[in-house]
Amino acid sequence: MASELAEDYVKIINKPLKSKNPLVILGFPGIGLVGNIACQHIIEELGMEYIGSIDSRYFPPLAVLFNGLVYLPVRIYEAAKKEIVIVISDIPIHPIASNDISKVLTDWMQSLNAKNIVSIAGIATTTGERRVFGGATNPELLEKIKDKTAIFPVGTISGITGSIMTECFLRGMPAISLLGETHGPNPDPKTAVEVINVLNNIFGLSIETEKLLSNVEQIEHELSKLSEQVKTIDTSSLPEKEFPMYG
Known about the structure:
By secondary structure, the protein is α/β, with parallel strands linked by helices. Helix content is 35%, strand content 25%. The chain has helices at residues 34-46, 95-111, 139-145, 159-171, 189-203, 210-214, 216-222, 224-233, and strands at 10-14, 23-27, 49-56, 64-66, 69-71, 74-79, 84-89, 116-124, 132-136, 156-157, 175-182, 245-246. Strands 1-3-6-7-2-8-11-9 form an eight-stranded mixed beta sheet, sandwiched between helices. A two-stranded antiparallel ribbon has the order 4-5. Strands 10-12 form a two-stranded parallel sheet.
């Protein structure tokens, strides 16, 4: 009997991209929903085009409705003129599924000739600050971000974000993680703003954040249910001192 491959469990369905060497930004639900909030805001701010979805046997049986139209919960958007592609998820990815999804997603990003990959997530701490921590898959990228992010000497990145970073490292692909410091599992748009500001600084973008700041309460309310779902699969805990773990 033939062994099953990751591709048997995960499918990416998309239109042909217009971007030649895009910046790919990933936002999956985690602590504070930082990646999800930041990516959704960028999609709206840039008026990005929906170009496809990711489907998997691992995903729950559901569809997402936007203004009455059905979409899959993990979607792909493109801003062709700016050479930016975003992958955003409205469902938390279970740890059991992370490796297979990461392999297929990284295969796809490699096929796009992605010039840079950015995975946005959250870090839970008790400092009361909203720093943005950075991690990179090679020394050159680390040099590029070290003056724009906090660099912690010891830490771990768990879940789908950790799997993607590991897969990119193994393939020699240029990838960074931007991990926004948040105070708990509840939706944190303010931390998402800090991450977007760092993203602007690193890549010379000009994504406005005023609208995101003005809708903090609405966003927190709308995403509270997703935040509760994330809590149920979160298996991480805070390490000692100031070297937090993404969860």
